[in-house]
Amino acid sequence: MAFGEQKKKKTGFENLTRLVIIVMLVTMILGIVATAINALM
User: Fold this and answer.
1) How confident is the chain (41 residues) per 10-residue block, as mean pLDDT?
2) DSSP annotation of 13
3) What letters, b where the CB count within 10 A reaches 16 and e where it falls short, cover 12-32?
């Protein structure tokens, strides 16, 4: 039971970390694209 709770807790933390990483990557990509568009225009 304790192992199950620990696994569930870890999974939730991993999902949160993955979500944060995805948001950071998307923000970084959008920033690069915006900079490229401004440079071209």
Assistant:
1) 62 88 97 94 86
2) H
3) eeeeeeeeeeeeeeeeeeeee
Give the span between the Cα atoms of 32 and 39, in whole angstroms.
Answer: 10
Q: Give the DSSP H or E segment for 31.
A: helix 2-40
CA distances 40 to 2, 8, 20, 33, Å, are 57, 48, 30, 10
pTM of the model: 0.59
In single-letter form, the type of residue at position 25 comes to: L
Whose tokens are 């690069």? That residue is: 32
